[in-house]
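Hi V.,

You were right to ask for the full record rather than a summary. Here it is.
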Amino acid sequence: MENKTLKRIYKMLKPQARAILIISILSIIINVGEVLKPYLIKVVIDNYLSQGIWQKGIMTIGILGSIYIGIVLIGNILDFIVTTTTNMIGENVIYSIRNKLYKYVQYANIPFHDRTPSGTLFVRITSDVEDITTFFKDVISSFIKDMIMIIALAIMILSLDYKLALICFSIIPLVILTSVIITKITTRIQEISKKAKTKLNIFLAESIYGVKLIKIFNRQYEKEKECSKLCNDFYKTRVPTSFTEGLLIAFMLIFENLGVSLIVWACINHLFNINLEVGVIYIFITYLKQIFEPIQRIVENLEVIQEAVVSINKIYDILEHNEYLENFEKGIELEEIKGRIEFKNVWFAYKDEEWILKDVSFTIEPGQSIALVGRTGSGKTTIINLINRFYEIQKGEILLDGVNIKDIKLRFLRKNIGIILQDPFIFAKTIKENIELNENLSDDVIMETVKLSSAKEFISSLPNGIDEMAYERGSSFSAGQKQLIAFARIFAHNPSIFILDEATANIDTKTEELIQHSIDKISKEKTSIFIAHRLSTIVNVDKIIVLNNGEIIEQGNHNELMKNPNGYYYKLYNAYYTNLAG
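Predicted structure:
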């Protein structure tokens, strides 16, 4: 196991140091009892049974028997305590690691999520964490106890007869060499198996999320074949694992019996003048078998250990990359957000110097409404992402009320910018909870925002009204209804700057007319930014910014831009209405 992995395991176990110390002490007591039990039998055999005088020692034998039973009872009680404590350690470690992972996912920046598939993150939080759970709950306690047992038994064997002990220990190099070779092979196989398992889990997660799309295109059969192939790939990685695990167990059994054979052979032939009593031979064989029992358990847990090691490394490969974490508390808070936004010679690229925005400069005055217009890929959504600092620009400045947004506390910045997307996300909670988003709002505020968003009629028609539960991703509502909930949500949180990214695309014409009045009212009071492909929805904004290939090619209000028959906006607007008429 690499030093890096050991450090990661130590980091996970450090908070549980006191509980581990208790387990270790109790394990020592349990193992002392396990060592004493064969010794008590040895005393009875050599001192009484082999001499045929057991009748004279009946009282002593009875006492020794009572001690034996007491050791068994106390050992079982302590073993119960050790098992329970270990389970608690496991639960605490998993509770901590799962929360750390979830927190990382929430605080990681958008570039991290761009490069990390959601299915991979889902696997890390579920499957990989479960692998670690098994390791801590089923392996750690037995590992500590087994290691103490091996050391205690080795000391006892050496104290009984060091010459016979050395003969027995002669097979240890074979045990170590075999274990190292097979473990290395198993580790490599486990890594391959883990990759195959991750691919399968990602596929399953995506297939469940995208089941509607699969049905729309009638691709069930093709997806079934893809699933079968991934399952088969995973199965092929599991077969070698089972083989190596079984092979190592078989070798351990061979070495155990080889050790017993060496004891019998040495005693029969009086090798090195070894001449032991029957009880001592019995205890030697018993101790040797007891040594191989913990070794056997360690070998049997090898697969669990390897899976856990791979999972721990994959999880910490995420957690240790702090460069992706956003600092929500660093920076200043403005006393008041007036809403003046200024782009000054902004250059931005998602990758290297493949520029999406090229030297973009414009100003939005407080309370002004603007619209971003252009073909797909012209940079409209990128501008919105940059205002929210989802990405960091390479050149230039973005100012809010004259302050560089990099100097403003991120939590404060995003709290004061509200975005409605074309496809809003609805949680599997009540409509009220979807509007509140864990912020305690009064019923009056919620009902006012519902009315303002024109969602009152739709919500009132539901059996439970505002307390109606939404299905996963809001599948129980139409696209337009989800959009109305999104409008109620943003109105309830009352940000200083509104951004609407094709927000009325899924709303019918009648509802759009109703909500447009609310938008117009807000636009007069707050800075508003619109992205719209329906050009009819933006004719009344204060300024239209026309983008093409990441550059601003025109600016002005609708009337000003329509005065230029050779202008890009003029042609775009006429083409839009020609398509409607066609």
